[in-house]
Amino acid sequence: MATAAFGHEREHYLNKEYGIRSWLLTTDHKRIALLYLVSITFFFFIGGFLALLIRLELLTPAGDLVQADTYNKLFTMHGQIMVFFFLIPSIPAVLGNFLVPLMIGAKDLAFPRINLLSWYLYILGGILMLHVLLTGGVDTGWTFYTPFSTAFSNTKVIEAGVAIFINGFSSILTGLNFVVTIHRMRAPGMTFSRLPLFIWAHYATSIIQLLGTPVLAITLLLVVFERAFNLGIFDPNRGGDPLLFQHLFWFYSHPAVYIMILPAMAVESEVVACFARKRIFGYNFVAMSSIAIAVFGFLVWAHHMFVAGISLYSALIFSILSYLVAVPSAIKVFNWTATMYKGSVSFTTPMLYAFGFIGLFTMGGLTGLFLAALGLDVHVTDTYFVIAHFHYIMVGGAVMGYLGGLHFWWPKISGRMYPEAWGRLAALLVFIGFNLTFFPQFILGYLGMPRRYWQYPPEFQVLNVLSTAGSTILAVGYLLPMVYFLWSMRYGKIADANPWGAAGLEWMTSSPPPTFNFDETPEVTWEAYNYEHIPAAAEVPVER
Amino acid sequence: MFDNLPLWPARASTTAGSVDALYIFLVALSLFVSVAIFTMICIFALRYRRRKGREAEQIEGSTILELTWSAIPLAIFLFIFAWGAVVYFKERTPPRGATQIYVVAKQWMWKLQHEEGQREINELHVPVGRDVEMIMTSQDVIHSFYVPAFRIKQDVLPGRYTTLWFHATRSGTYHLFCAEYCGTQHSGMIGQVVVLEPAQYEAWLSGGLASGSLASNGQNIFQQLGCVTCHRSDTQGRGPNLVGLFGKRVQLEDGRTVIADENYVRESILNPSAKIVSGFKPIMPVFQGLVSEEQLNALIAYIKSLNQPPAGAAATPSLVSPSTKPQEPKE
Amino acid sequence: MSDSPVAVEQHGPELLHHFADAEQQRNAASLGMWIFLGTEIMFFGGMFCAYLIYRLAYYNEFAVASRTLSLPIGTINTAVLICSSLTVALSVRAAQLGKQKQIVVLLVLTLLFGLAFLGIKGYEWREKFVEHHVPGSSFSFDEPMPGHPEAKIDPRHAQIFFSLYFAMTGMHALHMIIGVGIFGVLIFMAWRGRFTPEYHTPVEIGGLYWHFVDIVWIYLFPLLYLIDRHK
User: Fold this and answer.
1) Are strands B99-106 and B131-138 parallel, antiparallel or unpaired?
2) What is the reported pLDDT for B160?
3) Do A105 and A524 form a contact (C-beta atoms < 8 A)?
4) What's domain A26-533's architecture?
């Protein structure tokens, strides 16, 4: 399965056709994955730039870099862009789109044209959001709380709401495609218990996307109608209930965080198995925990509302349920750790990201225990403690999972190896920069610094300066892969079909794969992670 | 202890200690778990690093281990839940007899009214050692009243009252923050809580302008707006008698029973037809737009004061039949 | 199940290349539509949830506002939709039996019923517009409280009823319009003889969609029109 140089001899999905039409009208899931890769990277850097401006403003206690209104727009759009236009699509739309058919031995997803439609909906939502950004912005916070968003804000709430509404359908259609594909298009012999854990986790993610996103859609639509037509559904001045908005909003937005983390857990399972060279410890439990997270994730939304004015008894119920949903995540962490026991561990870039993921996700998850504790949440909710908590999970967890996955499957996607030394350096910078940025925020939060503050009392400055310093290191860590991935597409070492010696159907076809994925439909007669039969590859550096 | 280590704010209320105790326990637990996992990973990664001639050992799993490391975390989590719930229960149950302070939040300031009549903006004076209950509403959007030193926070909503309470234990000046994003000057909607020794507090109270207590203001408004014409205290008027009403159960004409709390009184003034008392006609005028939040607070304080007949004993809640008219037949 | 030349000859152009066989394609399409309808339930569900909550909170106002809706029009529309579901079901049966002309006729009938529904709804909305019951700046609602002719219903709460009414029936109508579009395409395909007893998946999944839109109305009708009629 040795491949020739890029573009010569063997035909694969990248060189099968050239020209912009072949990309913009493609139905090949692998090309669509790359379309997504480019677009979400674009939005990641926009969202990241907004974050940088926020951190720069917060270097000093006074509001002296931008005006208050501008700052409010910065954090609002940072949140909206990062959540809806980067995190939610990221792993599913890039790695999921690319790998789900390959991993189950299918030629494509069930509905390739709907897959392309998904991307166009994402782009349409993205264009609207960019338009909002460039023509005045929106300042409601990514949470759109009423009545501020419906009756008081003077910014482009309607347009932002519509942009996210459209983007939501992109998410729904991706989920739909994955569920039908996993159910109906597995290769012969690929039973559910032989599926890679990546597939199980994406299946669970898709369930959440399908059931949760429509509720966000209708909620945002009602906010748009209320604002446009002066209705009173969520505005107490007009007979409505602002808490109803919060319940409807969080009913989606809490499961949404599981949309963001489950795929990273998916990557984690694949990477750890490969670089310990063994089957994931407790496969059944890890698979079932993904499903459990998806189910329980729908039952805990009001833990965002403990001080919002809900009843004491409501709060008790949601607190205890929140502790239940933590158990499956803990199970996964223990299982990944146990996988390394008596394994054969190597320290490639993807594995470094995997280590980072376990550490940072564990810390983020543990701080979730703080927030679920009612008596403590009263003090720390709406402060930087929450900001630190969710960034530990979404950045320390999900983004590191995404980057680890990108590195792991880069050879498969591009046919090239990225430069390993640079990869490790970037991973290290990301880890250090991340911790420096966000750990001080836990302390800031407990000290009482509220979130969404443009200016703050001077005693909070030292911790803010540390945080900003960390963010600059983090930024470098994120820029490096941009540079060397692009470099590798031209100058990277040619990859063969299975440079890591990994298990999984995707590694049994060439790098890059042919358009229809497999020369012949595989017939699966082995269990997942059959590492005892796979020779370790030379590509996995022991020492460099 | 450790007050000069900037890891937590000053502890200035009875709740602060409980909250910090839970926090420190969780920090210790998190440290322990993180170190344990980190150590395991380091040990495994180094001891089982890739070496020539040594293959990985394929281990399927261990159900016993899975159940153990599910059950133990679950037990710990439930313990934390219970502890947090106990602290929360105390935080959300104001003691009887607390001094009440009315708060009206608006973009972008805090307006506070003491029962004795003092009004403050962005500053709250309270004495050490007294239970204080804040009865809060917003004029516009959602805000949140947050005093880190007391470890308390409660969202302040338009259209209804929310409450929080505290018992200050140390004199000093502490931050007051708005903790729910509310627009342009959200980060400017800050102030301070000034906790004074009881003697100083009395001095401060009497040093202000003598504008009369909140309840007496309320009485004035009650008369100015003409409430007194229907809500008579001597005979049965066209409206229910309000003496001894506050805190009691009220029977409504549609069969429901509600407690006459702040939200009920507020709604009855702004939107009388929402809850019609059994035996009365819905003829009360609508005062939406005709009274400010501060005036509503004063009226509520006045109505509360009607619970103190000269004998002074607090009555227990009972079902009140506010009229001697026969019940109108239900539809 | 590989792409052997024999396999390619045995199916028509409808089999998409990435499916192993026609059965897989059919199953995928069917599962896909069912899941999509599940997402639609969640979508409408948000509005039903809001409606339920306000109905309990503003019982009287919602009852009075509901009574201003036209029961005859609502009932006729319900009958129209139920008939259209019948013609849809019959069209699927016709396709299964290969009765080409019948398929077209029944699909056209379904379309006509759908257009009738939309037309009647448009007429109903216009009535509401004339009565100033459309939420917004020109909204006005001046009805007495039940049992207390001297007092008025709070118009803000009535406006919430109508906001939800228009949101729910509006979303429903939008889905009907999309359904009409889908059936237009199906009619064209049927007229061109594209459906056989072996391949009529578009009719089946189009039918599923139409049935769903009908069922949403079956819930909307009693919740919006009938809540206070027993008195």
Assistant:
1) parallel
2) 93
3) yes
4) Up-down Bundle (1.20)
Out of C59, C154, C231, whose CB is closest to B273?
C154
In sequence order, the 6+-apart residues with CB closer than 8 A to the CB of B8 are A446, A447, B2, B20, B23
Domain that holds residue C131: 22-225
- Read off the pLDDT of residues A295-340 as tens digits, 9 standing for 90 and up: 999 999 999 999 999 999 999 999 999 999 999 999 999 999 999 9
Contact indicator for A243, A310 with CB cutoff of 8 Å: yes
Homologous superfamily (CATH) of B11-42+68-211 is Cupredoxins -  blue copper proteins (2.60.40.420)
pLDDT tens digits, one per residue of A121-152: 999 999 999 999 999 999 999 999 999 999 99
The pLDDT, as a whole number, for residue A156 is 96
**What letter would DSSP give residue A394?**
I
Q: Is there a contact between A59 and A144 (Cβ–Cβ < 8 Å)?
A: no
Q: Tokens 């037949």 — which residue?
A: B329
pLDDT, one tens digit per residue, over C32-73 is 999 999 999 999 999 999 999 999 989 889 999 999 999 999
At residue C5, does pLDDT exceed 80?
A: no
Q: What are phi and psi of B323, to 5 degrees?
A: -140, 165
165-194 in chain B: CB under 8 A from chain C: none
Beta-carbon contacts of residue C139 (< 8 Å; ≥ 6 apart) = C132, C133, C155, C159, C162
- Residue with token string 């502790």: A323
Element (H, E) at B112: strand B109-114
Which of A366, A446, A455 is the closest to B8 by Cβ?
A446
Residue C144 forms part of a structural domain: yes
The two beta strands, B249-251 and B172-178, are unpaired
CA–centroid distance for B292 within its chain: 21
pLDDT at B315: 42
Q: How many domains does chain C have?
A: 1
The answer to whether residue B271 neighbours chain C at the CB level (below 8 Å) is yes
Strand order in the sheet with B319-320: B257-259, B249-251, B319-320
Tell me the average pLDDT across A351-379. Answer: 96
% of residues, chain A, pLDDT over 70: 97
Chain B: give the shortest CA distance to residue C171, in Å.
29
Instruction: Work out the minimum CA distance from A432 to partner chain B, whole angstroms.
Output: 16
| Angle made by CA atoms B74, B77, B83, in degrees to the nearest 5 | 145
Helices (H) and strands (E) in chain B, counts: 7, 13
Q: Check whether the bond before A147 is cis (ω within 30° of 0).
A: yes
Identify the bridge partners of residue B125 per DSSP, sorted by sequence position: B194
In a domain, C139, yes or no: yes
CATH number assigned to the domain comprising residue C87: 1.20.120.80
CATH number of B214-305: 1.10.760.10
pLDDT for res A8:
53
Please, which pLDDT band fits residue A1 given cuts at 50, 70 and 90? very low
Angle, vertex CA A237, rays to CA C66 and CA B298, nearest 5 = 125
Gap between the Cα atoms of B167 and A79, Å rounded:
37
Residue found by looking up tokens 């709804």 in the block: C121
Convert the pLDDT of each residue in A172-183 to its tens digit: 999 999 999 999
Residue C41 is predicted with a pLDDT of 97
pLDDT exceeds cutoff 90 at C229: no
Q: Are strands B249-251 and B257-259 parallel, antiparallel or unpaired?
A: antiparallel
**Residue B281's pLDDT is what?**
85
What's the pLDDT score for residue C168? 96
- Per CB distance under 8 Å, which residues of C are interface residues toward A? 1-3, 16-20, 24, 27-28, 31-32, 35-36, 38-40, 42-47, 49-50, 53-54, 57-58, 135-137, 154, 156-157, 159-160, 163-164, 167, 171
Are A378 and B78 inside 8 Å of each other by CB? no
Query: Which pLDDT band, with edges at 50, 70 and 90, does B309 fall under?
Result: low
> Residue A6: pLDDT above 80?
no
Given a cut of 50, whether residue B2 has pLDDT beyond it is no
